[in-house]
Amino acid sequence: MTTLSWIRSVNGTLGRLMPTHIAGKMRRAFMTPRNFAPRDWELPLLASAERMTLRFGLSALRWGKGPTVLLMHGWEGRPTQFASLIHTLVQAGYTVVSLEGPAHGHSPGRKAHVALFARALLEAAAQLPPLRAVIGHSMGGASVLLALQMGLRAEAAVSIAAPAQLLGVLRRFARHLGLPARARAAFISQVEQDIGIQIARLDVEGYQLDLPGLVVHAVDDALVPADQAQLIHKAWFDSRLMLLDQGGHQRLLADPRLSAAVLELLAREPARQRA
Fold first, then answer.
1. pLDDT digits (tens, 9 = 90+) for 127-178
2. How far apart (Å, rounded) are the C-alpha atoms in residues 104 and 60?
3. What CA–CA distance (Å, rounded) separates 65 from 89?
4. DSSP 3-state assignment of 4?
5. Handedness of CA 29, 32, 36, 42 (dihedral sign)
6. What is the pLDDT of residue 268?
7. Angstrom distances, CA of residue 22 to CA of 29, 115, 193, 267
8. Contact, 38 vs 78, CB < 8 A?
9. By C-alpha distance, which of 141, 66, 72, 143 is closest to 105?
10. What pLDDT score was predicted for residue 180?
11. Which of 48, 57, 59, 257 could form a disulfide with 106 if both were Cys (CB 3.0 to 4.6 A apart)?
């Protein structure tokens, strides 16, 4: 029996007997990230970065000089996973600031979720020059979209492999770990209480996205279904949808088509100049 099969078996049994208890354990697992060391190909970029410490100990890495582009990685991710995009942006004359989300890297905290990531973006933006763009991958992409609803200001935004609905993420996680119906409901309720925002409100269908945008997803993404990108694009009037034929959930970050599309978005005349 594999580890996952054992976990699902235990959750299936105890989830019927003690749904609230098992839901609490899964909630803690859902919000407690692991920190992974950078890969060898990330090390040169890491060595060339300037480390910044922002308010409340929030950590970030910075490269280049020029208009500022703010990046947010995904769950259990790292700033240097954007290596290819960072190189492209720096060469094109931008300053790149890539955050380490709460409970990731050098940033403080023991738990993480989309609202904490969104608030970290707001804290960072308050200490940086006006943002030419903000870019997020996976949960970082969802946090970018949420932060825009919370008052984050940028001239453009990019969502990469991001979910459109947190409820779908929670349901997939709960089913993957074998939680029975009552435990699934308790898990979702506990996550909602922890985040402090109604889960129904964390759906891009109800968002106001009034800036130019780019939505990127790979059709072979096994973690976040590609139809999520369609939903984001549908809710985002001034966005371009780019579906890559392959790239999975992580490899698309190194796809040159992504970097080219980001530069094309940034080449558009800023909204403040059109006004």
1. 999 999 999 999 999 999 999 999 999 999 999 999 999 998 998 888 888 8
2. 11
3. 10
4. helix
5. positive
6. 83
7. 11, 23, 16, 50
8. yes
9. 72
10. 86
11. 59
